[in-house]
TrEMBL record:
It comes from the Bacteria. Pathway: Carbohydrate biosynthesis; dTDP-L-rhamnose biosynthesis. This is dTDP-4-dehydrorhamnose reductase. It comes from Aliiroseovarius pelagivivens. The gene is rfbD_2. It catalyses: dTDP-beta-L-rhamnose + NADP(+) = dTDP-4-dehydro-beta-L-rhamnose + NADPH + H(+). One of its GO terms (molecular function) is dTDP-4-dehydrorhamnose reductase activity. GO terms for biological process: dTDP-rhamnose biosynthetic process. Residues 1-280 form the RmlD-like substrate binding domain. NCBIfam families: rmlD. Catalyzes the reduction of dTDP-6-deoxy-L-lyxo-4-hexulose to yield dTDP-L-rhamnose.
Length: 284
């Protein structure tokens, strides 16, 4: 099996590389996602047996200022990739986000629930989903949330940095979701790609997030507890932490069908956090 991955430096891409070193990983230099034709050409060039897209414009606040570039990367390029994969009869695994949902209520979102993104990043990720589905191939859209790892930019690394500088942090306690280790996402993508090769009828939209659901504030407390960081966390409402992009309050993802169809269970984020802190040399 020749696996082609868009993305080389991101959180999920690096975890894919650790688990599938023989796959081909395309960085920005090989395939810039602002150039959909270049992305399509790479799939023709390598004629892989499966494609995973692990590249995206993920700077949620910056996306508000530059929705056109964000749409090119998150919307148009994945559509072009999915189109070539459909033509070649090759499975395409694409990662999406909880930020396609409005975030009202407290019921976990199922894959068929109505979407209504609250910000530019979410709108462009939804555009990507729509184009991937429209291509009509053996696709899997895997919506995940709150991705963390020892690499790149993420909430764990931000908390370790700020927690070392400050005695107390104010963290939003009314946004609820599932922190998801990038390593678990990489494993899920590889298993899904494999299964789609043999069972293309499993194509569809699926959810995958770490369990149990929690708030950013409680997540921060666990990061400080596990790392032995002395930093108090004060709960605040989202209204007290204004940001350019609106975040959904309810990011809970119902992952039932991912378990039923692919046999992939929700990862336990506390265990994932422990492994990440060990990797960072920050576990007490
Ligand atoms: N991070 C999160 O909390 C969440 C992420 N997701 C989704 O999961 C997937 C993986 O995210 P994650 O690993 O965290 O992402 P990262 O932000 O860690 O990495 C993004 C990757 O995309 C690449 N990239 C960005 N723009 C371009 C471009 N124009 N051309 C080529 N490559 C580009 C980056 O390359 P470079 O290093 O060169 O910039 C980098 O390799 C994405 O689809 C994301 O939307 C879903 C939910 C939550
Ligand atoms: C640093 C800090 C953040 N926060 C809040 C802001 C925000 O609501 C929450 C998390 O901050 P982040 O900047 O990590 O959030 P954000 O970058 O929006 O994370 C999102 O990224 C995209 C790519 C996704 O797809 C989502 O699933 C989600 O992971 O913590 C505080 O309340 N206090 C603080 O001191
Ligand atoms: Mg972020």
């Amino acid at each position: 099996m020749t696996l082609l991955v868009f993305g080389r430096t991101g959180q999920v891409a690096l975890e894919l590389q650790a688990r599938s070193p023989d796959a081909i990983f395309l960085g920005r230099e090989q395939a810039d996602l602002t150039d959909p034709d270049a992305c399509a050409a790479m799939i023709h060039k390598y004629a892989p047996s499966a494609v995973i897209n692990a590249a995206a414009y993920t700077a949620v606040d910056r996306a508000e200022e530059d929705e056109a570039t964000t749409l090119a990367v998150n919307g148009i390029a994945p559509g072009a990739m999915a189109q070539v994969c459909a033509e070649l009869g090759v499975p395409f695994v694409h990662i999406s986000t909880d930020y396609v949902f409005a975030g009202d209520g407290d019921t976990p979102w199922t894959p068929n629930d109505a979407v209504s993104p609250p910000n530019a990043y979410g709108r462009t990720k939804l555009a990507g989903e729509d184009r991937v589905r429209a291509a009509g191939g053996a696709y899997a859209i895997l919506r995940t949330s709150w991705v963390v790892s020892a690499h790149g930019n993420n909430f764990v690394k931000t908390m370790l940095r700020l927690g070392a500088e400050r005695d107390k942090l104010t963290i939003v306690a009314d946004q609820i979701g599932g922190p998801t280790p990038a390593g678990a996402i990489a494993e899920a993508c590889l298993s899904i790609a494999d299964q789609l090769c043999a069972q293309p009828d499993r194509a569809g939209t699926y959810h995958f997030s770490g369990a149990p659901d929690t708030s950013w504030a409680d997540f921060a407390r666990e990061i400080f507890a596990q790392s032995g960081t002395e930093c108090e966390v004060e709960d605040i409402p989202t209204t007290a932490f204004p940001t350019p992009a609106t975040r959904p309050l309810n990011s809970r993802l119902d992952c039932t069908t991912t378990q039923q169809v692919f046999g992939i269970a929700r990862p336990k984020w506390r265990d994932g956090l422990s492994a990440i802190l060990t990797q960072l040399g920050a576990r007490t």
